[in-house]
Amino acid sequence: MTLHATFSPDTPADLGPECASSFNPALMAEMPQLLREAAQIIAGLSEAEAIEVARSVTQLATRTVWTARAPDLALRTFPCAAVEPEVMPLPVRALALKAGQLAASVPASQAIWMLGALYTALLPRSVRKTQGIYYTPPALAALMVNRASDVGTDWHTARIIDPACGAGALLHPALERMLASLAGHEAQHVLDEIGRRLRGVDLDPVAAWLAQVGIDMRLLPWCRRAKRPAPRVIHARDGLMPGARRDTSTWCSAIRPMARFGSTPRAGPGSRAASAAVPTSMRCSSSGPSSWRAPAAC
């Protein structure tokens, strides 16, 4: 059996039979076309413009999914400047909305994998290459978690960290094992345990945001019962920095009282150092008008 260890937007049609067999057929049928459209959209754009497109499409697509799943709850604040839908060219807006509507029809883990794959495909190849942005396919993530169970991992007590989590492909099957081990417990206890024992870190703030939103989506039933937001378990920083290692040893849940259900706490201690570690091309900052945007209405 051939197991594809990485998913590359450069070969969108080759998603792997193991991945396809466990995924929603409609999702797998649409993904190659979505990724081809993404490649066409960024063709000819500068690196900075392509990154802005990737972020803007990701924000709108994810917002579309969240609105369909939890219209009464606030989506976590997007970490970067992004172009609003009314300013996007029609093909860009159409791609984001189509992706969001498709992702809204599948389970949270599949939705976030799809949005992460689309985000990756919209990034310039130079950025993907220099930053090593190639996401783990769900089939491989599931296999790794199964192997962890085979060697005796106790999901009642296990603490899991992915120091380069991307959009959270490895964290979702681990989360499912944790939730299964917590069946029958009060919602408050489930959220506390997930906040204490699950952690993801990534240099890319948009990927980290996607991973966190995916966790938020999966935990919605428990959040509704407990009347509280999901714990923040994903952080945008360097997972190999000394500060990040200290943080993972303390396993601070980063949960604070929030005025509004679903608001996002700001990064805690170490965030300044973490920001410095993020590659310049991937840092979040406000930018001026770009040539790819639709002209403003008179």
TrEMBL record:
Q: Where is the stretch described as Disordered?
A: 262-298
Q: Where is the DNA methylase adenine-specific domain?
A: 115-181
* Gene3D superfamilies referenced in this protein's UniProt entry, alphabetically: Vaccinia Virus protein VP39
* Protein's name according to its UniProt entry: DNA methylase adenine-specific domain-containing protein
Family, according to the entry, reads as follows: Belongs to the N(4)/N(6)-methyltransferase family.
Q: Name one GO biological process term.
A: methylation
Tell me one GO molecular function of this protein: DNA binding
Q: Which UniProt keywords apply?
A: Methyltransferase, Transferase
Low complexity bias spans: 265-277
Nucleotide-binding as UniProt keyword: no
This chain's source organism reads Limimaricola cinnabarinus LL-001
